[in-house]
Amino acid sequence: MSRAVCPGSFDPLHNGHIEIIGRAARLFDEVIVAVSTNPAKTYRFGTDERLDLCRQGLAHLPGVRVLPMDGGLVAGFCRDHGASALVKGLRSSLDFDYELPMSTMNRHLADVETVFLPTGSEYAHVSSTLLKEVASLGGDIGPFVPAIVLQRLAENG
Question: Residues with catalytic annotation?
């Protein structure tokens, strides 16, 4: 069985994430969406809520499982869960430049390969940070997030 991990903070999950995870689900028997927490980051949604939003937003994708990744290295998470690959979406060459050294280190640490998938052009400009900013200023992000995320953002002001 081929298993891959798609790591991220998913704060919040958006359609660009869903597109990459859906494509990964067609390439691998199982995809684990690893919802990470970085103590140095400030999150709009807590870990439990991000896990819930991912589970609801990805429920339609077969072979996708959502798990917390509490600290530690993603290489160790992959090893602990029997994953042979990491899947990363790339919006631009800047993402590639950022991700390439990490992919080399992950291969060194856990013999895990990184599969880069270019994001669909309709989501190349989308990031969780941008969406949170637009939403906080009253902009419509409905076309870029699942309905449950839009609802939770509205509830949490």
Answer: 17, 41, 91, 128
Residues 62 and 155 sit within 8 Å (Cβ to Cβ): no
| Rounded distance between C-alpha atoms, residue 62 and residue 30, angstroms | 8
Buried b / exposed e across 130-142, counting CB within 10 Å, b at 16+? ebbeebeeeeebe
Residue 114 structural domain: 3-155
Q: What is the pLDDT of residues 41-85, one digit of tens each?
A: 889 999 999 999 999 999 999 999 999 998 789 999 999 999 999
- pTM for the whole structure: 0.95
CATH of the domain at 94: 3.40.50.620
CA gap 123, 131 in Å, rounded: 12
User: How far apart are the C-alpha atoms of 68 and 66, rounded to whole Å?
Assistant: 7
Closest CA to 109 of 74, 82, 63: 74
Q: Torsion angle of alpha carbons 74, 120, 141, 93, nearest 10°?
A: 60
Q: How many domains does the chain have?
A: 1
